[in-house]
Design brief:
9 helices, alpha+beta, about 30% helix, 12 strands, about 325 residues, Catalase HpII,  Chain A, domain 1
């Protein structure tokens, strides 16, 4: 064990994924399979009023990575229930700041240590290759805060996204925004597709082929750009900022703070995508992390995964 408890926890979080899943150390410990796109982010005037962050003042280029949640780089698209969308904003001074989101509105755990038990409860059944519903439900009964996310994820057992461009993504955690005048407010991010939201039965997804989401994304962007609205939900006094399993009330104000225009596929999917690190704790002046312990733990788990991935690729 090291002298850094957070670093040790990061190793344990990555190790349990290795334990339960058939992982490849040359890839990300989770969301191993992904594709990157080039994009432009243009903030709205409302964004500049809420935060002094540089990318909320003027348009900046961005890189978007769409992914399957599986730690397997060969995971077929029809088998995916949870999917990811990560955005890297490229600031003019060379800095970067990221948003990492999934198509679930809440997370499964409110303490990072609970992720270890959840991952073991979600291990694939040898007969079906999928988690045992009974085992996952038993976990949920022991940890009732997880039931919202379990119910949302279960819905994807019957249907899956029709397109990566027709899915809403949620960044799950709270962040504190600071305006130029010093006013502060906690927000949560959503990426809302301009094309609307659509799902298809899993059987139809299988008929479309194992790479149907990849083909759809490539073909659509070849025809023209696609857009997402960056929406922030604004907290009010009393709203929890340390618990990603608990949604804020629907009545909370939601503000459109920018448009993300995806212009095409990134030409170099290796150096331009897989060598990049998307980390939700990478923030810039005007944005601070909340007191969410799961958010903090992600930084250390990502660091462990990154070091392993780069070392393995260098070895090969």
């Amino acid at each position: 064990m090291s002298q850094d408890p957070a670093r040790d926890l990061g190793h344990r979080l990555v190790a349990v994924i290795d334990e339960v899943q058939d992982t490849d150390p040359a890839y990300r410990a989770a969301h191993a399979r992904g594709l990157c796109c080039d994009a432009i982010f243009t903030p709205t005037p409302e964004a500049a009023a809420l935060s002094r962050a540089a990318h909320l003042q003027a348009a900046v280029p961005a890189v978007v990575r769409f992914s399957n949640a599986s730690p397997r780089p060969d995971a077929p698209d029809p088998g995916q229930g949870v999917a990811g969308m990560a955005v890297k904003f490229l600031l003019s001074d060379g800095r970067e700041t990221d948003i990492v989101a999934v198509n679930l509105p809440v997370f499964f755990v409110r303490k990072p240590e609970h992720f270890i038990d959840l991952t073991r409860a979600s291990r694939p059944d040898p007969g079906t290759g999928r988690p045992s519903p009974a085992r996952v439900l038993r976990y949920g009964l022991r940890h009732p805060e997880a039931l919202r996310a379990i119910v949302h994820a279960a819905r994807h057992q019957r249907s899956v996204m029709a397109s990566r461009l027709e899915t809403r993504y949620f960044a799950l955690h709270a962040f504190r925004w600071t305006a130029a005048g010093g006013a502060r407010i906690f927000v949560r991010y959503e990426l809302e597709p301009e094309a609307g939201e659509r799902e298809i039965p899993r059987a139809e997804a299988r008929a479309r082929g194992r790479d149907f989401l990849e083909k759809d994304l490539t073909e659509r962007l070849a025809r023209g750009p696609a857009g997402f609205r960056l929406i922030v939900q604004l907290a009010e006094p009393g709203d929890r900022t340390d618990d990603p399993t608990r949604p804020w009330p629907r009545s909370r104000r939601r503000v459109n703070v920018g448009r993300l225009e995806i212009t095409g596929m990134t030409a170099d999917q290796d150096s331009g995508c897989e060598h990049r690190v998307f980390d939700p704790t990478r923030v810039v002046d005007g944005i601070d992390l909340s007191d969410d312990p799961v958010l903090s733990a992600r930084r250390d788990a990502y660091s462990v995964s990154i070091e392993r991935r780069f070392a393995e690729r260098e070895r090969r």
